[in-house]
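Email to the structure team, subject: Peroxisomal biogenesis factor 26 model.

Hi all, the expression group asked for a predicted structure before they design truncation constructs. Nothing fancy, just the tokens so they can compare against earlier work. One-line instruction: predict Peroxisomal biogenesis factor 26, return tokens.
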Amino acid sequence: MKNDLPVSFAGLSGPAGFLRSSEPLSLSPGPAPATSLLEEAADLLVVHLDFAAALDRCERGCESLASDPDSESSAEVKCSLCIVGIQALAEMNRWREVLSWVLQYYHVPERLPPKILELCILLYSTVKEPHVMLEVDSYWLRDLTNQSLPSYGTLMKLHLLHVLLPLGQFVEAEELVQGCEAFNKEQQLEALRTINERRCQWVQQEETQSGPEEQPATAREKLLGSVSRKLLTILTVLRRALGSMSSHFCSSPYKKTLLAALIVCLVVVRLDPAAPTSLPFLYRLVQLCHQAWVAVFSPLYRPPLQD
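Reply from the structure team: attached below.
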């Protein structure tokens, strides 16, 4: 008489609640200790919600099967123990340990049962870390023995939809579909159409995410351009004003006014330009005029000297 153990347990919260396998796992009568531990682990997981105890029973059951790993009944019980263990780890939020925990009993990815690989793909897809399964799936799908299994096509679709496409590996997905003998022509066309749709969505999402980053830069460039234009306008007005002042100062009436002021100053202070005592005052006056000239007229706007 066979026992039917559901691969997924209804009512679970957390990551394990999302795990769904394609069909229930039918078990042949196996070694009594391992089967008893399996039933106890399932009861602890579903009824008592004692996830740590359920995981402990699974580990003890897998260890008890180490002496006879190749028999069909032992393989089925071992697979069921690992399934219960996966859900127990997920319920304890220890999903990061799932893959390493399973591989300690199967050693290499190629030997993973299809149902365990399926649950691992769904688990790491649910927690948004599909890259964890990328290498494991590749090893499993390339194995010639696995390619003859009835569930090979199903796992190929899961790898495509839940691992390659979420990671943006569209070229690898196309090559995988085109070289997959498990897909007929119609399935290949449907898979390629799905890949193209996901590629378009990926591109649109990248454009949407990059848009807000470019907008502040554009606004900043506009602000700098506005400031530069205002500064250029101010400098142009200032240049024109200085040019007008320069033209005014160098005009003939201004020169005559300056000469008249100098003569009046000499008359008022009664200095004799030919007297030796007036030379220091005249020299100081010339220096002050020169300094005033340099301060008012920069080299850029200084008018040319006329004879």
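The radius of gyration is 45 Å. The beta strands are 3-5, 25-27. Ping us if the truncation boundaries need rechecking.
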